[in-house]
Amino acid sequence: MTVALYARRKQWALEAVTVRLRHSRIYAADCENCETREGKLDRIERDIELHGALDDQQRTRLLEIASKCPLHRTLTSEIDIRTRLT
To answer: Which of 24, 35, 63, 85 has an alpha carbon 20 to 30 Å from 16's alpha carbon atom?
Structure first.
């Protein structure tokens, strides 16, 4: 949604966005870019398909915008979950 709103504001020829996600659990030791070194962690692989007559520069910028959307920022930040029985 963030990508589509940005493209619309810029009046770019984005017709549709398709996002595919895959979730898996991997050993932390197998993740060379991760801070966690023990146990397992969640891995989400994301494929973004942009439909429309966009040039390479526009496509690159939309990919950058996708990584700045609120959901992406939430998933990549530290999360503190507090549960209460009511």
So the answer is: 24
